[in-house]
């Protein structure tokens, strides 16, 4: 089987980790670097990754994540946040582009973000989620299990981790090594999910 297909087929959410097992720094670094290669609108790379590894910091976010044990047992917890003002990075992103093309791109980007904060937050959510998915696939490719978590208090985590207003919490991801055989969950038949040419009631 193609290795990429194998990774996508075998990845599953793990909530029961080997407590105390360390995730090597070099492995974590590789996961993060691969996650950073995810696609994004205008290549603005809306994601940022806050890495939480110490027991002290995990204890702080444990109640914020509604006392989910995986937060304490995981080797690392990654909070994915999204840049709601990613247009502020645009000039740096396109610094090497010929002037005429750069000016057009920047004009389009700045014009889009003038629509307001809601637009920026939607873009942050969509694009940072691409980074989050890529992070989980990269982890699996390197033998590390993961679980995405949306169940946490976004307002409280913003305060505890000193996240500035420019960024919004998108997803928490636990990383570690499964303590038990991984169960694949049931999936809808692909025929239920795919429609041809237009929407169809299934």
TrEMBL record:
Pfam families: Nitroreductase. Residues 9-177 form the Nitroreductase domain. Keywords: Oxidoreductase. One of its GO terms (molecular function) is oxidoreductase activity. InterPro entries: Nitroreductase, Nitroreductase-like. Gene3D superfamilies: NADH Oxidase (3.40.109.10). Belongs to the nitroreductase family. This is Nitroreductase family protein. It comes from Fictibacillus aquaticus.
